[in-house]
Write a structure and sequence with these properties.
The structure holds 2 protein chains of 2 kinds. Chain A is of the alpha+beta class. Chain A is built from 5 helices and 14 strands. In chain A, 30% of the residues lie in helices and 27% in strands. By secondary structure, chain B is mostly helical. Classes of the chains: A alpha+beta, B mainly alpha. The A-B interface holds A 42-43, 45-50, 52-54, 62-63, 65-70, 73-74, 77-78, 81 and B 27-29, 32, 38-44, 47-48, 51, 64, 69-73.
Chain lengths: 326, 102
């Protein structure tokens, strides 16, 4: 019996001598992995020096075990001080108008402009239209990537922040917050109809009611005759091709006459240009029920200018005189 | 501004050890032996005091190659830490006696 106990003790001692140092190293590695990355190198060396002063393999293992609890506490202590790898990005969609109108013909078109607010872990907020910036506070590179998720709507955009490691979702906009929401055409027509009816009701026996509704780039003109004076048959609209008195066709060089049809001075008097298109829309203020033409003005400016002139106000110019004018 | 550390019995032991030994600093192992604290208690206290500005620490001047072992990190009280520790000990002494933290 004593021999068996002695043999067992020898086996246990041998295993202890072999296993405990391995266990100590393993526990110390686990403890260090609990710490934030910035503190691992420091405490790895500090605890290694401390464990070097401890006598006995069992005590060293106990010290390493205690380091695991220390690592957990220190990690929670340092968590609030450690800069988070996650950061917040806010996207503001605003309208930007091109400053230089001479560069592009589409200069009057407002283009969507997105401005990103980068909230760095250091506390600095950097505004930029670019998707990658350098933080002015701590100098780290911040960036975002745009991800469209499965079955996500077209106007729904998800932005993710990226710095060094993958980060969590930061913000989502279903609609551009500052962009003007276009009014549906059905709403516009409904408003127009209600105003039209109200105008007729208030005017009583009116001969003409004109109502304009302005909405962004849309202008609708409504003209009505008196309620008791509506003719039985609709007014015959003149056909442009039947206007045989003037040999006008697209591409002909013309000059705008001095007066309008009512005798008033024409706002475009004297301007020359080329007819680009005939119009049949009843909304030209100088038209007075007659066909009009869209004329491209001869001017060395960009973008090109177009005017809308009644055909009776136009004078045909020969090609020679047009060349002289130019 | 750093938050003030909690002055527990173990914290007072660490502070008392550092106040007693007026030297260039004590390593974690020396503080642990003097205060009779295990690693799981000692190092969070040291880190908390260091973050509060009561302690400062520095490595040994020699390199590990010259020493033939890992470098030690020495802890010592700062001026603010010394004043606050002294004030804390006066409060404890007046309340529960001078031997309470020893």
């Amino acid at each position: 019996m004593a021999l068996v106990l002695a043999f067992g003790a020898v086996i246990v001692a041998a295993l202890t001598r072999l296993l405990v140092p391995w266990l100590t190293k393993r526990l110390l590695r686990i403890a260090i992995e609990r710490l934030p990355e910035t503190q691992r190198e420091r405490f790895s060396e500090e605890w290694a020096s401390h464990i070097d002063e401890v006598r006995g393999e069992i005590r060293k293992a106990a010290f390493a075990l205690g380091c695991i609890f220390a690592g957990l506490q220190m990690a929670s202590l340092l968590k609030s001080r450690e800069p988070s790898r996650f950061y917040r990005v806010r996207a503001d969609h605003t309208q930007r108008r091109e400053e230089n109108q001479n560069e592009q013909r589409t200069s009057d078109v407002e283009e969507p402009f997105t401005q990103f607010h980068f909230h760095c872990p250091c506390g600095q907020i950097t505004l930029s239209g670019e998707k990658t910036v350098t933080c002015t506070g701590c100098g780290v590179s911040l960036g975002i990537r745009r991800v469209r998720e499965h079955r996500q709507r077209r106007d729904s955009v998800t932005y993710y922040g990226i710095r060094i490691l993958p980060v969590s979702q930061v913000e989502r906009h279903n609609h551009a917050p500052n962009a003007a929401v276009p009014t549906p055409i059905g709403t516009i027509i409904s408003r127009l109809g209600s105003r039209f009816k109200a105008a007729l009701a208030n005017r009583g026996r009116v001969l003409s009611v004109e109502k304009q509704l302005r909405h962004t780039n849309t202008m609708l003109n409504v003209e009505a005759q008196g309620v008791h004076d509506i003719p039985e048959e609709p007014r015959a609209r003149p056909v442009i091709n039947e206007w045989a008195r003037m040999p006008l066709r697209e591409g002909v060089h013309v000059k705008v006459g001095p007066t309008c049809l009512d005798g008033k001075p024409h706002p475009h008097a004297g301007k020359t240009g080329r007819i680009t298109r005939f119009m049949e829309i009843y909304s030209d203020p100088h038209w007075f029920g007659r066909p009009a033409a869209m004329i491209e003005i001869d001017a060395a400016v960009w973008p090109r200018r177009f005017i809308w002139v009644s055909l009776q106000c136009l004078e045909v110019l020969s090609e020679d005189s047009h060349a002289e004018d130019l | 501004m750093a938050t003030e550390p909690r002055l527990t019995t173990q914290t007072l032991k660490v502070l008392g050890t550092l106040m007693t030994h007026k030297s260039d600093g004590l390593s974690g192992a020396e503080i642990g032996r003097a205060a009779k604290l295990q690693s799981g208690t000692l190092y969070p206290i040291l880190l908390r005091l260091e973050k509060a500005g009561w302690l400062e620490s520095h490595w040994e001047a020699e390199t590990p190659q010259e020493l033939g072992r890992p470098r030690r990190r020495f802890y010592q009280l700062t001026g603010i830490g010394a004043r606050k520790a002294k004030s804390a000990f006066q409060d404890v002494t007046s309340t529960i006696g001078g031997l309470a933290w020893r």
